[in-house]
Amino acid sequence: MYTEIFSQMKKQLGQLDKWLGTAEEFAKAKGFDPGIVLGFRLAPDQFPFAQQVQTACDTAKLAAFRLTGKAAETPPIPRQRSGSFARALGLSSRTSTASQRRTSKAQL
Predict the structure, then answer these.
(1) How many CB atoms lie within 10 A of CB 60?
(2) Mind listing the domains of the chain with CATH numbers?
(3) First to last CA, the chain
(4) Which residues, other chains included, contact 59 with Cβ-Cβ below 8 Å and sequence gap of 6+?
(5) Quick one: DSSP state of residue 31?
(6) Within a 10 A sphere around the Cβ of 72, how many other Cβ atoms?
(7) CA–CA gap between residue 20 and residue 89 (Å, rounded)
(8) CB atoms within 10 A of CB 62
(9) In terms of Cα–Cα distance, which of 71, 61, 75, 89 is closest to 5?
(10) In 3D, which of 20, 35, 1 has the Cα closest to residue 106?
């Protein structure tokens, strides 16, 4: 079960990194601050992009805790409403690494 779930989550977080990289390149090409992208919404009823990144990372981290039988932190990663684009870009890779470490220890 661990392998199937975390291979998909790792893939999802890797794709999220690519989206953030593409958004940053687009912003630089158009000449505006990449941090503005974090406030964008695809639809009025959706969370801003920054909160979607945070939610994806929280989901992966909580799943790692639950599948390994550990008590989850509350919240798994402190929510930061305002933040830099660089912090958002690094969040998914740090979450992927932490989740993988947690599951690797649990399988031993």
Answers:
(1) 25
(2) 2-107 (1.20.120.450)
(3) 14
(4) 9
(5) T
(6) 13
(7) 6
(8) 17
(9) 61
(10) 1
Helix, strand or coil for residue 27? helix
What's the pLDDT at 34?
86
> Which parts of the chain register pLDDT below 50?
76, 82, 107-108
pTM of the model: 0.67
**DSSP per-residue letters across 40-106:** --SSTTSPPHHHHHHHHHHHHHHHHHHHHTPPPPSSSS---SS--HHHHHHHHHHHHHHHHHHHHHH
Closest to 33 in 3D by CA, of 72, 71, 88:
88
Q: What is the CA radius of gyration of the chain?
A: 15
Which structure tokens are listed for 104? 């690797």
Token look-up 């639809």 returns 43
Give the span between the Cα atoms of 62 and 64, in whole angstroms.
5
Residue type, 95: T
